[in-house]
Amino acid sequence: MIEIKNLHAKVDGKDILKGVDLTIRPGEVHAIMGPNGAGKSTLSYVLAGRDGYEVTKGSVTYYGKDLLALEPEERAAAGVFLAFQYPVEIPGVANTTFLKTALNAIRKHRGEKELDAMQFLKLLREKTKALGMSDEMLKRAVNVGFSGGEKKRNETLQMAVLEPKFAVLDETDSGLDIDALKIVAEGVNALRSPERSMLVITHYQRLLDYIVPDHVHVLAAGRIVKSGGKELALELEKNGYRDFGVNEAA
Amino acid sequence: MATMTTTYSTRGADPATAPAFLAPLDHLRSGLPGAALSWVRDLREQGRERFAAVGLPTVRNESWRYTNLRDLGKLTFQPAVTADSDACFDVLPTVRPEGHGPRLVFVDGRFRAELSSTEGLPAGVELLSLATALTDHGDLVGDHIGRLAAADDRPLVALNSAYLADGPVLRIPRGVALAQPIELVFVSVGAEGRATSFHPRTLIVAEAGSRAVVVEHHVGCGTGTTLANHVAEIFVGEGATLHHYKAQREGGAAFHLSHTAATVAKDGCYDNFILTLGGRLSRNEVVSTLAGTDARTHVSGGYMVRGNQHADTTTLIDHAQPNGTSREVYKGVIDDTARAVFQGKIIVRPQAQKTDGHQLNRALLLSDTAEIDAKPELEIHADDVKCSHGCTAGELDDNALFYLRARGIDQETARGLLIGAFLAEAMEEIAEEPIREAFHSLVAGWLEEKR
Fold first, then answer.
1. Does B410 contact A105 at a Cβ distance shorter than 8 Å?
2. Which residues in chain B are contacts of A82 at CB distance < 8 A?
3. Which residues on chain B are in Cβ contact (under 8 Å) with A51?
4. Residue A103 forms part of a structural domain
5. A249 within domain boundaries
6. How far is B101 from chain A (nearest CA, A)?
7. Could you say which of A72, A93, A106 has the minimum Cβ distance to residue B402?
């Protein structure tokens, strides 16, 4: 279980999160919607442990542990996964090498045996097939020369390989056309399970047609201002964020 | 020649340092191999005279602006005596996973026959020590030694000539292609409590149409201060291909100075790659002259330094004839208070039309106190040429680092992956996969040490 309590965070000296409260139980999928600048990405980076995101107040308890005290790699090893809005290109590091290093680091941390090259390739084949990814994409350097859709599929593949307990999907729909969105959403849905929680962060309701959440929250000006079921997303689609004091042309 | 009087400019030189470096010669000279050959005596004498007049280069010498040999000048070096402490090198390096093939081993600059092997070489290939060559085959080396490595403006080449005694000699006859790499292993041992110097001379003659791969390993053991002052002269004949690789990982008390001069005939190809990991101070000078038309040269490398190491890479590509191609790709990783120097010059002579020259040096600075001094230079006297150079210095990409860590990869491993990736572009210049793999492991070892 993940319990976010009264979370305050600063970026570049500016208060962005101003008291976020959220509890996510195993198996639940929560969506956070909100306008630009509400603090959606800040929340995802704070959860993943990025430098420069300073927590000034509040706590995040992850299965009884103080999540905020852990290094990013320790969080990943404990089962936290952030699917990046903008996956980073890493020239010179092959995608397979990256995935294998990550998986074995996490397995080692969990006290499991590391996979050898053969075992890993077998596992990878299974996972890629489901996502319609080519072998060629695996051989290429991490995200280098990938289209927007390929990058997001690659994030989903990483999630499938690393099997996190808690996945944060930051604007997974950004930059995707509808076909790519469907493929990615199918990949994500395939990973839904009673042990795995997800936090889906999005600006638009569209993604939630494909990844249907159990709970929807509205984040505005650094706070969760409204929570509800999946119908809240539809309401937002219709009325925009103006009910929450936000004026957006979109 | 001994009667000729020459005056030398001492600008950027420090003659006061010369006597200490030359004094041991007086005891040695008569015992050096090849004393019966007049050209050898002349070469040594000219070298001695030249070095006596100028001594070590100083930072006022334009070519030595960023590399200060002051610390070297303060030491009193003794020439190496026959090394007898073998304990430290029970396993000598090789790039062959199946075990070493043909190789020559030198300990403190002296040939060690019992550690060397010339088995399996095709008929006609000559692989032997310079000391043996000077004693038994003076004609083989007489036509080549001293031809490329000019001592005039290079005091350390002069010093090397003054002590000319030993080193590897390789001749690949016309049309012969060597299936396996030839390995040259140089071990610096030195002696406890005193500084030891040696001056190996390498000669490689790849005759027309021949093909060979040569791998040099420079390793160290022991804690004594050593100075390895190498000079290599390399002749690549018409249509010949020579791939020349070097890994230098001597110890923290080692000075490694090296001057490699190559000349490439028509349609020939000379590849040089140097991986620098070791040494307290190292300098690799590579001069590759495209002396025939349609000749190619690739001069590349990687340097990884930390602590207070200093690594200098100084290259000169001389396009003397038309249609030549040159390519340089260097990558450097500099940590702590280490310092690296890259000076790369490309000359395109007036007749060298249709030259294609490309040079790149990228440095990765891992600390705020790491330093790189880079000086690319193009000197173009022809009008129909394509030449480019690029120099950059940067840091590790924080975004990439976070991305890797967010996937469970610890900070040091993540840094290692990124550093390895950074170096990859240079390592790709190594054409032979087994050698590339072997050099990759050396890089991996370097990254491990840090942890």
1. yes
2. 406
3. 398, 402
4. yes
5. no
6. 30
7. A72
CA-based nearest distance A246→chain B, Å: 31
B95 with B438: CB under 8 angstroms? yes
| Residue B260 banded pLDDT, cuts 50, 70, 90 | very high
Cα B29 from Cα B31, distance rounded (Å) = 5
The predicted-structure confidence for A34-86, as pLDDT tens digits, reads as follows: 988 899 999 999 999 999 999 999 999 999 999 999 999 999 999 999 999 99
**Residue numbers of the domain that contains A166:** 2-244
- Kindly determine whether residue B421 and residue A102, on different chains, have CB atoms separated by under 8 Å: no
- A94 close to B (CB below 8 A): no
- CA pair distance B410, B450, nearest whole angstrom: 14
B410 touches chain A (CB under 8 A): yes
CATH number at residue A58: 3.40.50.300
CB contact under 8 A, A72 and B417: no
Would B269 be classed as within a structural domain? yes
Residue of chain A with shortest Cα separation from B417: A93
Can you tell me whether residue B40 is helix, strand or coil?
helix
Cα separation of B75 and B89, whole Å?
26
Mean pLDDT, residues B129-153: 86
Q: What is the mean pLDDT of chain A?
A: 92
The reply to whether B401 touches chain A by the CB within 8 Å rule is no
Q: Is residue B449 scored above 70 in pLDDT?
A: yes
* Average pLDDT of the residues in B135-139: 80
Q: Could you give the number of structural domains in chain A?
A: 1
B49 domain-assigned: yes
What are the tens digits of pLDDT across the range A85-130? 999 999 989 999 999 999 999 999 989 999 999 999 999 998 988 7
Report chain B residues whose CB lies below 8 A from the CB of A97: 417
Q: Which tokens in the block code for residue B35?
A: 């004393």
ipTM of the modeled complex: 0.96
Pseudo-torsion of CA A233, A235, A239, A245, nearest 10°? -70
Tally of structural domains, chain B: 1
Considering the domain boundaries, does residue B422 fall inside one?
no
- Could you give the CA distance from residue B249 to residue B291 in angstroms, rounded to a whole number? 32
